[in-house]
Amino acid sequence: MFGKxxxxxxxxxxxxxxxxxxxxxxVSQKGKTFSEKKITLKxxxxxxxxxxxxxxxxxxxRSKGHKFDIGAQxxxxxxxxxxxxxxxxxxxxxxxxxxxxxxxxxx
Length: 107
Ligand SMILES: [Cu+2]
Description:
Blueprint: H1 2-20, E1 24-30, E2 33-34, E3 38-42, E4 46-51, E5 59-61, E6 68-69, E7 78-82, E8 87-93, E9 100-106
Parallel strand pairs: 1-4, 3-9
Antiparallel strand pairs: 1-2, 4-7, 5-6, 5-8, 8-9
């Protein structure tokens, strides 16, 4: 009984959040690859980078106007990054150069 009530509160809450706030898209890192190669977002949207590997990753971008570095990300953790300006963002992993994700941020 308690379990069902708890789940419905969570579902109701996330529905409300998605109607009010920008979107948050989950991207998994597994087998030293991103679960997506290309993603299109709107300004203000976020990606939550999930480390589904048993090794450390380090997501970053050096694209002009979009530089960020989430630092060493341990296995099983999730780190969110918001995209606040339009443009094309090349996302990489500092530890595994073959990991590539392109984010197109639209206005
Ligand atoms: Cu990596």
